[in-house]
Amino acid sequence: MLAYSLDGKKEQLEIIKDKLAFLNDYPQISYERGKAFNYKVDSWNTSNVSGLEKRVSRLLGIENYNRRDLACPPIITNFIKYKDSKNKWRFKFVDSAAKILLKSEAYSSEAACDTGINSVIKNGVERNKYVELTTKSKLYYFNLKAKNGEIIATSNSYKLEIDREKIINHLIDLFSGQCNGEGFYLIEHILLRTRTNEDKFLPISVKDECACVGSEDPYSFRATCVMPYWTGRFPNMDFRLFVERTIREETPAHIFVKICWIDEVQMANFKKEYYEWLVELAKTPLEQEELTKKQNQLITILDSLRNVYPVSYLYDCQETENTPVRLGQSILGTFIPTENE
Asked: What are the two backbone dihedrals, phi and then psi, of residue 304, each rounded to the nearest 5 degrees?
């Protein structure tokens, strides 16, 4: 039921595909379930990851479990707002080469235009929201519609049907935040142990009211799972809870795993420090001074990570589309006033 609510009609094909991937890899994800990755060889853009990461990925239907770049730039920067000749607000969505992919209808206010942008971001991840059309001159284009059927953006016209399909797939990837698809990073705390007097310790809680047994040792049998909250199916809170439950069920019982859902900015900063630390850790012999520098930077940013939840917006009584705001599962969208307000 969860898969159907996320994937609609393609749910059955997706589940069959995921089951095949799981069965094909079963020997490996079974006997290597408790195997760590080899940190002394190259582990970026490779399948050199722990057995737990491979098993969890297959159980969740994550196609690519390789350690790779999961940091995508914020999609909001691709929207350009402007006023037309009739003083109405509009927006256009452009790619990295400034090519226009989507255009909006006219809005009476900037606030309404912002609502339209948020609606495009929300609905642009679903294939069934793209309505394929043809002009009288037999050119191909599409409309992006909201849940209530209202047109929220229109594409350019294309001579070939396949070009239209490529743009739709590209937009879904962009709105899903798919640099390389869904994925996560798993960091074993024991690898962050101190080696010199200059190495930072992982932070611990020393408050008197802390009743957490074992909190004085942040290294033994502990790991942190870092996940992008915005990509693919991850913004769905039901799927997010399913992900967390799967990770904890598959993690060996004696290991405590902390799960952090972070945003694009945090992920970009974390990915940079994580990658540079892995490069230093793999060197033989170790360049201890450089490793200390990279490890201290990674520990600092690891301690600064904070969970992020999907954005919801409060609407007035005239709005036709609404999303619930749930305590502990949502954050309110940020309102940025104009110069006149």
From this structure: -90, -10
DSSP letters for 162-199:
HHHHHHHHHHHHHHHT-SS-S--EEEEGGGG---STTS
Residue 143: strand pairing partners? 131, 154
CB atoms within 10 A of CB 200: 15
- How many secondary structure helices (H) and strands (E) does the chain include? 9, 11
Is 316 inside any structural domain?
no
Integer angstrom CA distances of residue 86 from 82, 106, 109, 152, 194: 11, 9, 12, 19, 64
Domain that holds residue 46: 32-72+179-304
The answer to whether 133 and 139 have CB atoms below 8 angstroms apart is no
| 339 has a pLDDT exceeding 50 | no
Query: Is the predicted pLDDT of residue 145 greater than 90, yes or no?
Result: yes
| C-alpha–C-alpha distance, residues 262 and 230, integer Å | 8
Q: Is the pLDDT of residue 211 over 50?
A: no
| Nearby residues of 305 by Cβ (< 8 Å), 6 or more positions away | 226, 260, 262, 266, 270
Q: How many domains does the structure of the chain reveal? A: 2
